[in-house]
Here is the input.
Amino acid sequence: MHIRPTIVVLAAGPGRRFLGGGHKLAQPLGSSTVLGTTLANAIQTRLPVVVVTTAALAPLVADQLAHRDTVLVDEDDARRGIGHAIAAGVAERASSPGWLILPGDMPLVRPATLLAVASRLEQHPVAYAQHRGRHGHPVGCSAELYSDLVTLQGDEGVRRLVARYPGVAAEVDDPGVLVDVDTEADLDAVRQALAAAGPASAAAAAEAASPD
Here is the structure.
């Protein structure tokens, strides 16, 4: 790989759909947490990693990332939507040759998948993970999209950029690119499937449990 994009892990949202005790990203998952597992997969790639989070959630990542790799946004900005978090993470690593946007509630995305998307940015301005024809995460953007990314606001994510710029899918045998933890049912399904048979089963179980 000739370029080393930064993985921007988004961990600032309030997670309103999760009605269990505590924030969804802080929920135990195996020997770690939902966010800790997502972050560990990102770190395994050996690509630069930055996490965008709030002061309340920052302790979740203190043992995995240096303080300089943690971008804090205030609670009000976090509630305004994902766009602000993406802009903050990208601006923090403005000199990066690109960025992979990875939601912190996607603990099944494999390190190899992140690297597959990163490699596509060598030839394309936008790349994204895809499993069996379905678009998933992460979404990668090259440095030429910097101005677009740092002006994102509210609930505006990178979907508009995927539609606007020539992009390419990284087709991966990783159903985890489609699985996020929004509800207690999602979390239970991921836990059960991981305990039983690993990530491939987790995807099917989580999709079955989620109303989405």
